[in-house]
Amino acid sequence: MDIQPSLLGYISVAKDWLTLIIAGCGVGVAWQGLRTWHRQLKGTSQFDVAKRLMLKVYQIRRDIEYCRSSVRKISIFTHNEDGQPIPEREQLRYSSDREMKDRFEYIIKTSSEMDFLLFESEIILGKELREFFQPIEEVCYMLRDSIEEYTEDYNQKDGRFHDAEERNRYRELRQIIYSRKGDAIQTKVDSAVREIEKFIKPYVHG
């Protein structure tokens, strides 16, 4: 029995439509797969940068605690960095100043690494992240300036001051440089770390 030409035309059109539908479904499945892959990749990137940044935050907190610790073991230097001999009466002061600056070097290194990582984190996690780091940055700058002022202007005085203002400033510097349990500086750092943890926690724990 011969199939009518019109019926053959309908069959051809139906096959074309079926081909288009199948192709469309394939594109849809592929698009959905790409979207899922993109979400997974984004989630992986967020987790990775959040984890690395949080570890760096804990490191800078530890470095600040170490730098300000009042427990110190000072090695006495008899020669300065240029190899020149140091008078015996000045050796303890020189060694103390050098040890103080060496401790701060840990903060400089970690702070630099954290700042570089923060640029990447702003892109992936959001620019609002940077404001949570401001208190830590302020403490680092305060420590740097205080150590510099103390070692250059005050540590060599050996308790001899011109007036009460100079004596008070000496005490202020020591309160910044040397930690006391629950002092304002450590409280400021701990508070900043908690706020950063709140922001980063969803990216780390999902």
Description:
It is built from five helices and no strands. The protein is an all-alpha fold and about 210 residues long. It has one domain. The termini are far apart. About 5% of the residues have low confidence.
Summary keywords:
single chain; mainly alpha; elongated
Overall number of strands: 0
Q: How would you state the average pLDDT, rounded?
A: 80
**Could you give the order of the helices and strands?**
HHHHH
| Major pleated sheet | none
> Which regions contain 5 or more consecutive residues with pLDDT less than 50?
26-31, 33-41
Number of helices: 5
Residues in β-strands, percent: under 5%
Helix content: over 70%
Structural class: mainly alpha
Radius of gyration: 32 Å
Distance between the termini: 67 Å
Number of structural domains = 1
Shape, per Cα inertia axes: elongated
Question: Nutshell version of this structure?
Answer:
This protein has helices at 5-68, 88-125, 134-154, 164-177, 184-205.
Explain the layout of strands and helices.
Layout: H1 5-68, H2 88-125, H3 134-154, H4 164-177, H5 184-205
Helix pairs in contact: 1-2, 1-5, 2-3, 3-4, 3-5
